[in-house]
């Protein structure tokens, strides 16, 4: 068959056999030797063409199916998906630089060192409100509830037992919104002093005296000791000498 023929342009018989035309029998048909030679040459040329096309596939030049060589820069048809993923400028005028100098991404404030001007209010803006110019914003501190009160003031009083500065305690309490819990300041201070040393009780007496009139009123102090007398049975459980103290 034609595929089993050798790559040589002439067979052994043709090399030794003179100029006379020879015939070979293939599948019962006699074919002239010239036709066999042409078939061999065509098969060999096709093999060379396929080998060159596979070798040059990674280079700039390539061979098409018709045997035509495609040069670098030739228009090669691309798929629509490749065009969608192409990040190059459609107009061909892009310089390849990032947009807005690299400061145009999502969640970006701007380039480093950029200073923004003060935004002026537009009177012609339909959302403009005259009352906005006269607004005064103040920091609102929510009043402490009973649980937050004890959690916040306990470390303040315990630190006071270490440094003994009543002015510092007064400034810290003024920053808090005690609300209706002002009378609980002496209650908490005395309760902590009962569990401490004698020096702590003396410091607590001085603290209540200095806070009266600035942070708490006389009425608050009276209300605090009334509550201490009512809670005395519970205080005895932790401090047995609480009534005498």
TrEMBL record:
Does the keyword field hold Transcription? no
User: What family does the database annotate?
Assistant: Belongs to the PDCD4 family.
Write the record's keywords in alphabetical order, separated by commas.
Answer: Cytoplasm, Nucleus, Repeat, RNA-binding
List all Gly residues biased stretches.
Answer: 99-110
- What SMART domains does the entry give? MA3 (SM00544)
- Alphabetized Pfam families for the sequence: MA3
Tell me what this protein is called: Programmed cell death protein 4
Where's the MI domain? Answer: 148-245
Q: Recorded GO terms, molecular function?
A: RNA binding
Chief localization:
cytoplasm
Which region ranges are annotated with the description Disordered? 1-111
Query: Does the keyword Cytoplasm belong to this entry?
Result: yes
Q: Where in the cell is it found?
A: Cytoplasm; Nucleus
* InterPro entries xrefs: ARM-type_fold (IPR016024), Initiation_fac_eIF4g_MI (IPR003891), PDCD4 (IPR039778)
* Any GO BP: negative regulation of DNA-templated transcription
- The biased composition feature labelled Basic residues covers 43-52
Check the UniProt entry and state the signal peptide residues, or none. Answer: none
* PANTHER family linked: PROGRAMMED CELL DEATH 4, PROGRAMMED CELL DEATH PROTEIN 4
- Per the UniProt entry, what species is this protein from, by scientific name? Jacana jacana (Wattled jacana)
A GO cellular component annotation here is:
nucleus
């Amino acid at each position: 068959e034609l595929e089993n023929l050798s790559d040589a342009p002439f067979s052994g018989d043709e090399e030794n056999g003179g100029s006379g035309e020879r015939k070979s029998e293939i599948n019962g048909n006699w074919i002239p030797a010239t036709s066999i030679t042409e078939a061999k040459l065509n098969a060999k040329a096709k093999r060379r063409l396929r080998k060159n096309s596979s070798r040059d596939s990674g280079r700039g030049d390539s061979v098409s199916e018709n045997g035509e060589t495609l040069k670098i820069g030739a228009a090669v048809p691309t798929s629509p998906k490749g065009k969608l993923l192409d990040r190059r400028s459609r107009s061909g005028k892009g310089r390849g630089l990032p947009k807005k100098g690299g400061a145009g991404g999502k969640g970006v404030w701007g380039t480093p060192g950029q200073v923004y001007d003060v935004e002026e209010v537009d009177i012609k803006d339909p959302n403009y409100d005259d009352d906005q110019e006269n607004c005064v914003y103040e920091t609102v501190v929510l009043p402490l509830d009973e649980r937050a009160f004890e959690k916040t003031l306990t470390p303040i009083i315990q630190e006071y037992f270490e440094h003994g500065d009543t002015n510092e305690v007064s400034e810290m309490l003024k920053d808090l919104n005690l609300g209706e819990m002002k009378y609980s300041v002496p209650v908490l201070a005395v309760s902590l002093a009962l569990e401490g040393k004698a020096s702590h009780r003396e410091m607590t007496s001085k603290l209540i005296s200095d806070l009266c009139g600035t942070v708490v009123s006389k009425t608050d102090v009276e209300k605090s000791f009334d509550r201490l007398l009512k809670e005395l049975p519970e205080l005895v459980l932790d401090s047995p000498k609480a009534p005498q103290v």
